[in-house]
Amino acid sequence: MPGLRAHVQRLERLERRALDLESKLDEAREALHEERRRSRKAQQVLRGEARARRREFAEIMRARIERVRRRIARVDVIEALLPVRQRALVSASATAAGRVRAAQFEATSESYAAIRHAGAALEGTAAVDCYGMSFEFPVNEHDSGSLVARLRGGWLPVRDIAALRNIAFGPVMLDIGANVGTTALPRAVMGDAQLVLAAEPDPSNYACLVRNVIANGLEGVVLPDRVALSDRSGDSLLVHGTHMGTHHLTDSDHRAGGTRVRTMTLDAWIDSHNVDAASVGFIKCDTQGWEPKVLAGAKSVLHPHVVWQLEFHPGIIRRSGVRPVEFLRMLEQRFSSFIDLHGQSNELRPTSRLAEALEYLIVRHEQVYTDLILLSVPLPMRSAD
Predict the structure, then answer these.
(1) 62 CB burial (10 A radius; 0-12, 13-18, 19+)
(2) Which of 88, 194, 199, 367 is most buried (most C-beta within 10 Å)?
(3) DSSP code for 217
């Protein structure tokens, strides 16, 4: 039957076409599998090359870090240079830029202007000579704290300055919790910054800070501002401790023995002084447990080029309403690397290891506090201690 024969032929043609398409599909599958195998192999090669480059870069950076460590200024060198450079500063006339900056600052800061022109000696203070620099500081009959004792002995944080001089520099330094200037002034004398913006809220400490800036020929180089840095701008209660260096902020309005002080966020503070965040190279922060609040208001300076020196004291960090472990998580979110300056190891480590590294403080209480050097730039890490 012709119709049936034609139908069978069409079925045969369709079957041959189906077989041909299936064969081509098998070839395409095989080609795809082969391409995937080549791609996986290429990726493995690329990953291997990337690992090799990272290892090579890490070795180069480790070698550079070792060379830098060998070049770190010795403490005795800085001790010898401080009086020489301080005398040169006092004997030399201020630069035109410094004079203009000091005049502009005086015009905008009533506290600075009042102390600068007071003339008479401050009551309840003592003065010492430290490495050729003059320091005035407040004292009272109850104050036998370690900071006063160290100042009377001619102490300055020269060891910390020496340890950080290769990274703690830049056009602008911020000293938050400047006290009477024991960090800001030596760093300015050593030329670690062209401008130091120093925040100190306590009236007595601030008065001594201003007089120390003037006495050491640093007007226009160190700008002392009577302000407390926090997570908001407004005012807060400054509680006066029994010893110099123990005054601290509180959120409570019902504490005796306190003073209302002006507060600003770090971002608003530097903006009010026309300081470009990009020019800030080093920030020292010692605020007696208020460090989490300071950090919360410091979004503009969390850049890879900025190095922070921040006190970590588990016993008083709760004053800011933050537990020590919570604060360490804040640091991990904002920084990539750290050095425990006064701890059991001064290795550069990732901030993911902060809680583990600081167990000796938080859990074992082998030490009261330390200073953390914090960086936002990823650096090659040494193997675990």
Answers:
(1) middle
(2) 199
(3) T
Tokens of 205: 């400490």
Rounded Cα–Cα distance for residues 15 and 165 (Å):
83
Structure-token pair, residue 357: 């590294």
Gap between the Cα atoms of 292 and 279, Å rounded:
23
The residues pairing with 283 across neighbouring beta strands, listed in sequence order, are 174, 308
Whose tokens are 């039957």? That residue is 1
Instruction: State how beta strands 370-375 and 228-229 pair.
Output: unpaired
Q: Are 219 and 213 in contact (CB under 8 A)?
A: yes
Is residue 216 within 8 Å of 185, Cβ to Cβ?
yes
Taking a C-beta distance cutoff of 8 angstroms, is the pair 337, 377 a contact? yes
pLDDT along the chain (385 residues), means of 10: 69 77 82 84 81 68 56 71 78 66 88 84 86 88 67 87 85 96 94 94 94 92 95 90 77 74 96 94 94 95 92 88 92 94 82 92 86 81 45
Amino acid at 290: W
Q: Give the global pTM.
A: 0.77
